[in-house]
Amino acid sequence: MVELHGTARRVVCIGAAPRHGRPAGCGFEADTTWAFEAVDAGEEDPACPRCGGLVKSATISFGQAMDDDAMVAAHELIRAADVVLVVGSSLQVYPAAAVPELALQNGQPLAIVTAEPTPLAAAADVVVHGRAGEVLAPAVAAVLEG
Questions:
Q1: Residue 7 to residues 2, 70, 86, 102, 106: CA-CA distances in angstroms?
Q2: Beta 110-114 vs 126-129: how paired, if at all?
Q3: Quick one: which of 75, 78, 89 has its CA closest to 128?
C-alpha cells in the first residue's frame, strides 16, 4: 500500500516559505502526538523544534506537489499487482488519478471503492459505492471471489 496523499498520523516541517508546491523544511518529522502534546502544553501553533519553520500534517494539500518517491512506488506496485484496489478516491485529481489508469492499460483487474462517481467506473471490474469504512470488507470479498 502507498499513501499517495500522505498521512494524517505524522507531522512534517515545511519550512518558513515552501516554493513551487514543495516543502522547504529541515526534514523534521514526528508522530501527530508530538503536535497534540505541544498544543496541550499551551502552544497555539507548534513550530518546528529544529528550525522554527511551519509544521503541518504529513498529508499532501491541494497545490502541494506529490511525493516523487510515493508516485514511483505506486507505479512499481501497479506493475507487479494481480489486482488493483482503489479506495476513497474520486479519481479526478492528477497525478494520483493516473495510477489506476496504468492498471487498466496493463490489463489488470481494477476494483474501486468510493462514495463518489468516478470516470473509471465503467472500465472497472468491480465498483462499490459507499464509505470505505462501511463497504471495504464486502468489496474485497467480491474481488477475491471474481
A1: 10, 12, 16, 23, 28
A2: parallel
A3: 89
Among 130, 30, 58, smallest CA distance to 87 is for 130
Query: What's the CA dihedral at 75, 76, 80, 85 to 10 degrees?
Result: -40
Catalytic residues: 5
pLDDT tens, residue by residue, 85-119: 888 888 888 888 899 999 999 999 998 988 988 99
Cell numbers 516523487 correspond to what residue? 68
One-letter amino acid identity for 83? V
Residue length of the chain: 146
Is the pTM value of this prediction over 0.90? no
80 CB contacts (<8 Å, ≥6 apart)?
Answer: none
